[in-house]
Specification:
This protein has 39 helices and 42 strands. It is α/β, with parallel strands linked by helices. It folds into four domains: 174 residues, Rossmann fold, CATH 3.40.50.980; 99 residues, Luciferase, domain 3, CATH 2.30.38; 134 residues, GMP Synthetase, Chain A, domain 3, CATH 3.30.300; 429 residues, Rossmann fold, CATH 3.40.50. The strands form ten sheets. The chain has a nine-stranded mixed sheet with strand order 2-1-11-10-12-13-14-15-16. A seven-stranded parallel sheet has the order 32-31-30-33-34-35-40, sandwiched between helices. A five-stranded mixed sheet has the order 4-3-5-6-7, with helices on both faces. Helix 4 packs parallel to helix 6 and helix 33 packs across helix 38. The longest helix has 19 residues. The radius of gyration is 34 Å and the shape is elongated.
Length: 1172
């Protein structure tokens, strides 16, 4: 293990008890009684109130003695009905001095939640702060009834108030006018003589539990004071520090707010609630000059959001409780230029045992944030605290640098556990399996000096707290949190990381704050919803730059939120476009709700349950007067289609749709597009194809095409679409370099090694390409990764992909590196450093990535698929000389010309379509934008070959699962076809041959062609040996027991249309697997799936050369798909629950390795493959 990573067997000073915090505070009060201790700053109804250490100590001692005399003893819980005030500090310290356990009841919590706190804690004493009752009234009847009837209360302090002169009152006696504290006024100088120890329980804090029921976490005295000496030294804290009390009063960080200054002998400032608001808080910070504050990131938003007032006295801000973004830090550094930002990672369960990452102030280091990415790392464990990142696959192993695992906290200061929940304690507080605890027990016995506190000490307990967070070690040894184990969601078959969406949203300058959730829409479908808070100043600049005027909109109050319905419509489209450049399409939310601010719970965290639901937030949208005038001008067809859009797209008001509104900009996607076309077919009797919709996405254009069909005319076809791609090639050929330098293949060998640069490495084929590369001797891999926030995240994504497909080998870790990029951007999205690194390092460039979409037009795909290929070849021409392999597709041959050519040549004995064919037979007529982009790219690569580039164009057909493991791409057309037939209960009779090859063989051909190219650039066909026919392929379903009788294609097509048109019978019924490809499945498949026979002599040549020079294994005979292979694919699909098991009579599905499906489930792969 690297020396910079923590050693999970190290001694963490298990018996290093530093004393009880209330005892240390009392000593401080005796040492400097007149020093300022707690100051309540002025409120609208009261002046500033300031108290010394002696006054706070005497008030605390009064409470402690009263509780003690009332029978309160060690382990009893004292509940405080709380208020942010000096009385809260006194109640806290008094309860601790009585040896009891303090817990807080927030008056802002609903009565039902307050009752749960009482049920869990079973308090023996109640303290009501007078100001709490003044502002919030008495306890709710439900709560009071529970106290009176269900609890055994020993002591009550009904009206706690600290007078201006420091005299404490607790409320009147039941039988007279005297105060309850009058009888013990003589004991104010010292607390009762109560012994506590490291394992006494001073606090009971609540945290969210399963099924929404809060759980009580018992703290330990060990941790309350244990880490203060180190923190004081490390962060320059002293008795001169001035602390701000800003944490939620029932949130455990309030304990740190109170106890830190009292341990130091410093001062605590308590602001009025009116000052804890946007803009007001920064003004308070400026006026009162605290040097130190503890904040949640959400509270930090309140401090800096919209603020202009600086607070130069602030020296340290400790952030806890949530992800801290660099964007928020940048604003904070502007307003507090001398402020160091310390991001602290921990939980209620870890008490004070946390990690830290310090960002130096802007005054000390103006560039401190430049290399940190979107979020601040969790950092390193404090003194005697370890942040362990443990392998998810094998918990006995620590993760290496860059590898994502589960985060455990190891420390002597962990909480005791959950009150009354031993099963949860076993799950979350785990004995350290890396070392035998007896080691520490024996060491403690040797050091036992008979200290009194050992009466309340259970001895050393080497425990780990399982956080449920995912993270990875950075090269510095710091930890970055990358998400939650339970934060992944699955929508429309795709696994989505909500934190990744928020991280990319935060990258937009238009957004100040955000939160993405999965909510069910009005159709009870799970939908991604992003709640965003706009950065108003940036928004106004954006409007001015784009020639737009701001819209008047005060928003609508919905619970604790103010929702903007009109003002930020353009922002929603802009944000959607921002995400489209950074995330896969399925991860882009369909609904954006713009709020004035995110609601916070009393603990200062985002109150997710109270964010407005999509229906409530979006259905209230009203059409403006301008909208209504525009609506009246629409034709009946436009009104009908607009209404259909609004029915399909959540929150869309039909009367706000204009003729130039695009279906896709309004929130439509490919699945909704299919449903729209079915609706148009049924309601308007117009059979619009998906291609027509993509060519005419606006309301006006689409309505015009519908009207033409209804009037007996053909749809208007853009004749230039047939030649747009070849015309584009004629222009782009002029952008190629005049000459290309290439590497000598003979210079690369197992003895000399080779470094590969691979795009699309995380896709289905990409994973197997990586495997083929890394299985060879002396090879290294540089992977181009899109959408990752940093290099560690990028490497983790690649590792997870390889593990998910069951391919990963630990020995590869040191041979893999990553660069961040994006095919949709110039120079592959690489920064200058990465571009130069690849140019100077790589020997072979394998360009596998592409934007794969069977509907999008050429113009939409050109940047990612064509221009990226030109840039790829430019990279080959810089730095080290390279070989180039381009992964194309047989979709470049999808014209009638090549089908007829194949039939003619086969019939006359001249063979199949040659690899040397010039592709002029598909210069026009290719039907998909994807095929068109591959055609142009092929022609450009082959032209570069004529100018000196050395490499290959590899053309695979259908890429199916691996031969050995059965691992399959669930988004493949043939796999979806199988599932669609199972769902429908029938299969069509189609006799065309299917050019399908196992993915591992395709990968082998690609890498063999890259390392052993023929002179220039030559095409290499990957064709099946032998080929199955479609009816043979689908008949395997029946062979293995699926009830899918073969029917005529037209009958099957009708069944499919009826199935899809009927919609879901039940809320959770699965949608047809063919829905995303419905247009293909119903577009005369017997004709459209005809494929030419392909010559593959070049493939044979490169495979033979590869066997001679690299692998020693001759695979030149090629591979195809057998019925047993299909059985393995079906088994895999059943195991990962993509497909239901067969129930009819048939052969048993072939076995596959037991860990293959488990890997898919754990590492979340199996969806779309090949995209960048």
């Amino acid at each position: 293990m690297s020396g910079i990573l923590p050693d999970p067997t190290a001694d963490l000073d298990w018996s290093g008890y530093a004393g009880a915090i209330h005892e240390i505070f009392h000593k401080n009060a005796l040492a400097f009684p007149d020093r300022p201790c707690v100051t309540e700053t002025k409120t609208p109804t009261s002046p500033t109130r300031a108290y010394t250490y002696r006054q706070i100590d005497e008030a605390s001692s009064t409470i402690a003695n009263y509780l003690h005399d009332s029978g309160i003893t060690n382990g009893d819980v004292v509940m405080i009905f709380a208020h942010r005030s000096v009385e809260l500090v006194c109640a806290f310290m008094g309860t601790l001095a009585a040896g009891a356990t303090v817990t807080v009841l927030d008056p802002l919590y609903p009565p039902q939640r307050q009752q749960i706190y009482l049920e869990v804690s079973q308090p023996k004493a109640l303290i009501s702060i007078g100001k709490t009752t003044d502002e919030n009234g008495p306890l709710a009847p439900l709560v009071q009834k529970y106290i009176d009837e269900e609890l055994s209360i020993k002591s009550r302090i009904p009206d706690l108030r600290l007078n201006d002169d420091g005299i404490l009152s607790g409320g009147k006696q039941d039988d007279n006018d005297s105060d309850i504290f009058d009888a013990i006024r003589g004991k104010v100088s010292s607390p009762p003589d109560v012994l506590v120890g490291p394992d006494s329980n001073p606090t009971l804090s609540f945290t969210s539990g399963s099924e929404g029921r809060p759980k009580g976490v018992l703290g330990r005295h060990y941790s309350l004071a244990r880490y203060f000496p180190w923190m004081a030294q490390r962060f320059n804290l002293s008795s001169d520090s001035v602390f701000a009390c800003l944490s939620g009063i029932a949130h455990d960080p309030i304990q740190r707010d109170i106890m830190t200054p009292l341990w130091l002998g410093a001062q605590l400032l308590i602001p009025a609630k009116e000052d804890i608001q946007h803009e007001k808080l920064s003004e308070w910070m400026n006026a009162w000059s605290p040097s130190t504050a503890h904040l949640t990131p959400a509270m930090g938003q309140i401090l800096v959001g919209g603020a202009t007032t600086k607070f130069p006295a602030l020296r340290q801000v400790f952030f806890v409780g949530d992800v801290l973004t660099t964007r928020d830090c940048k604003v904070l550094r502007k307003l507090g230029p001398s402020c160091n930002i310390i991001n602290m990672y921990g939980t209620t369960e870890t008490s004070r045992a946390v990690s830290y990452f310090e960002v130096q102030s802007a005054a000390q280091d103006p560039t401190a944030l430049d290399q940190l990415g979107d979020t601040i790392p969790a950092g390193w464990g404090m003194k005697d605290v370890q942040v362990l990142v443990v392998s998810q696959a094998d918990h006995t192993k620590m993760c290496g640098i860059g590898e994502v695992g589960e985060i455990y906290i190891r420390a002597a200061g962990l909480a005791e556990g959950y009150l009354g929940d031993p099963e949860k304690n076993k799950e979350k507080f785990i004995n350290n399996w890396f070392v035998d605890n007896i080691t520490w027990v024996e060491a403690d016995k040797a050091n036992d000096k008979g200290e009194p506190w050992r009466r309340y000490y259970k001895g050393p307990r080497d425990r780990l707290y399982r956080t449920g967070d995912l993270g990875q070690y950075l090269p510095s040894g710091a930890v970055r949190v990358s998400g939650r184990i339970d934060s992944q969601v699955k929508i429309r078959g795709f696994r989505i990381e909500l934190n990744e969406i928020d991280a990319n949203l935060s990258g937009s300058p238009l957004i100040r704050d955000c939160k993405t959730l999965v909510r069910r829409d009005r159709n009870e479908e799970p939908t991604l919803v992003s709640y965003i808070v706009p950065e108003i100043s940036e928004w106004k600049r954006w409007l001015e730059a784009h020639g737009h005027e701001d819209v008047e909109d005060e928003g609508v109050e919905m619970g604790p939120s103010v929702v903007y319905l009109k003002r930020f419509r353009r922002m929603q489209a802009e944000v959607r476009d921002h995400l489209k450049t950074r995330l896969p399409v399925h991860s882009v939310p369909s609904i954006y709700i713009v709020l004035q601010k995110l609601p916070l719970n009393p603990n200062g965290k985002v109150d997710s349950p109270n964010l407005p639901f999509p229906d409530a937030a979006l259905m209230m949208e009203d059409a403006s007067e301008e909208d209504l005038k525009s609506w009246e001008k629409l034709s009946e067809t436009e009104k009908t289609i607009a209404t259909q859009w609004s029915t399909l797209i959540p929150g869309l008001n039909a009367k706000t749709i204009k003729p130039d509104s695009s279906f896709f900009d309004c929130g439509g996607h490919s699945l909704l597009a299919q449903q729209l076309l079915l609706t148009i077919r049924k309601s308007l009797d117009a059979d619009i194809t998906i291609g027509v919709l993509y060519a005419n996405p606006t309301l006006g254009a689409l309505s015009t095409q519908v009207d033409r069909l209804r009037n007996g005319q053909a749809v208007t076809v853009d004749k230039s679409a047939d030649t747009v791609y070849s015309d584009s090639f004629n222009e782009l050929i002029n952008t190629l370099d005049a000459k290309y330098e290439s590497a000598d293949p003979d210079a690369l060998s197992p003895s000399h090694g080779a470094t590969f640069f691979l795009t699309g490495a995380t896709g289905f084929l990409g994973a197997y390409l990586a495997k083929d590369i890394l299985d060879r001797k002396n090879t290294k891999l540089i992977a181009h990764i899109r959408g990752a926030k940093d290099l560690a995240f990028a490497k983790d994504r690649l590792t997870r992909s390889l593990k998910g497909y069951g391919l990963w080998q630990d020995s590869w870790a040191d041979r893999i590196s990553c660069v961040l990029g994006d095919l949709s951007k110039p120079r592959l999205g690489l920064d200058d450093v990465s571009w130069k690194h690849v140019a100077d390092t790589a020997d072979v460039f394998v360009h596998n990535a592409a934007y794969v979409h069977w509907i999008a037009r050429y113009e939409q795909m050109m940047r990612s698929n064509v221009l990226s290929t030109i840039d790829a070849m430019k990279l080959c021409n810089e730095g080290k000389r390279k070989l180039f392999s381009f992964v194309s597709s047989t979709s470049t041959l999808d014209t009638d010309y090549y089908v007829q050519l194949s039939q003619e040549q086969t019939a006359t004995g001249r063979g199949a379509v040659l690899e040397a064919d010039d592709l002029q037979g598909s210069r026009i007529g290719l039907g998909t934008g994807y095929g068109q982009t591959k055609w142009v790219s092929e022609q450009l690569v082959r032209e570069a070959g004529r100018r000196g580039l050395r490499g290959a164009v590899v053309r695979p057909g259908y890429i199916l699962g691996s031969r050995h493991g059965g691992v399959s791409n669930t988004d493949d057309f043939l796999i979806r076809f199988c599932k669609g037939c199972v769902q429908l209960g029938s299969r069509p009779r189609i006799v065309n041959s299917v050019n399908a090859v196992p993915v591992d063989h395709v990968a082998h051909v690609v890498i063999a062609a890259a390392l052993n190219p023929l002179p220039g650039v030559n095409v290499v066909h990957v064709t099946a040996h032998p080929r199955l026919r479609m009816n043979e392929f689908l008949s395997a379903l029946s062979y293995y027991g699926y009830n899918v009788p073969e029917v005529d294609y037209e009958e099957w097509k009708t069944q499919l249309e009826e199935f899809v048109s009927a919609g879901s019978v039940e809320k959770d019924q699965e949608q047809s697997a063919l829905m995303p490809l419905f247009h293909m499945a119903t577009s005369n498949l017997p004709s459209t799936t005809r494929a030419p026979e392909l010559d593959d002599r070049n493939a044979v040549a490169v495979l033979k050369a590869d066997a001679d020079r690299w692998t020693g294994v001759d695979d030149s005979a090629g591979e195809g798909i057998t019925r047993e292979d299909i059985g393995r694919y079906l088994r895999y699909l059943v195991e990962i629950k993509f497909l239901v098991p067969p129930t009819g009579r048939g052969r048993e599905l072939p076995p596959i390795a037991a860990d293959v499906a488990e890997a898919q489930a754990q590492w979340s792969v199996g969806g779309r493959g090949g995209a960048a």
